[in-house]
Amino acid sequence: MDQFENVSVLKKANIYYEGKVTSRTVVFPSGEKKTLGIMMPGDYEFGTDVKEIMEILAGDLEVLLPGSKDWIHIQGEGVFEIPAKEKFKLKVTKVTDYCCSYI
């Protein structure tokens, strides 16, 4: 889906790594939440509270998922999932646009 209908957007930005990663929270009528954000080039580590589905809309990065020794390269578009209560690493090499869904 290219756009979301009938949603609320929280005004306050989510800012990480001194502004190199930012997002806005989108809340659906059902209570479902997603974030839309941008990651600047850099190395990052994030943790999850709930299962997350990361949809890469544009960019270039590598991701190291929990329990894996192999980095996954995503150029352009791609999707990956992170289980709840886990950490994952990112190596962003080009400005990356993303949508994160919380399950």
How would you characterize this protein structure?
Strands 1, 2, 3, 4, 5, 6, 7, 8 and 9 form a 9-stranded antiparallel sheet that branches. The protein is globular. It has no helices and 9 strands. The protein has one domain (8-102): Jelly Rolls (Sandwich). It has strands spanning 8-9, 14-16, 21-27, 33-39, 42-47, 52-64, 72-75, 78-82, 87-102.
Summarize the structure.
By secondary structure, the chain is an all-beta fold.
Number of strands: 9
Largest sheet: 9 strands, antiparallel
Segments where pLDDT lies below 50 for 5+ residues?
A: none
> What's the overall average pLDDT, rounded?
95
InterPro entries: Ppnp (IPR009664), RmlC-like_jellyroll (IPR014710), RmlC_Cupin_sf (IPR011051)
Protein name: Pyrimidine/purine nucleoside phosphorylase
Keywords: Glycosyltransferase, Transferase
Enzyme class: transferase
Descriptive tags:
glycosyltransferase, nine-stranded antiparallel β-sheet, Ppnp, mainly beta, Jelly Rolls, 0% helix, globular, 103 residues
Draw up the topology in text.
Layout: E1 8-9, E2 14-16, E3 21-27, E4 33-39, E5 42-47, E6 52-64, E7 72-75, E8 78-82, E9 87-102
Antiparallel strand pairs: 1-3, 2-3, 3-4, 4-9, 5-9, 6-7, 6-8, 6-9
Family: Belongs to the nucleoside phosphorylase PpnP family.
GO molecular function: guanosine phosphorylase activity; purine-nucleoside phosphorylase activity; thymidine phosphorylase activity; uridine phosphorylase activity
Protein name: Pyrimidine/purine nucleoside phosphorylase
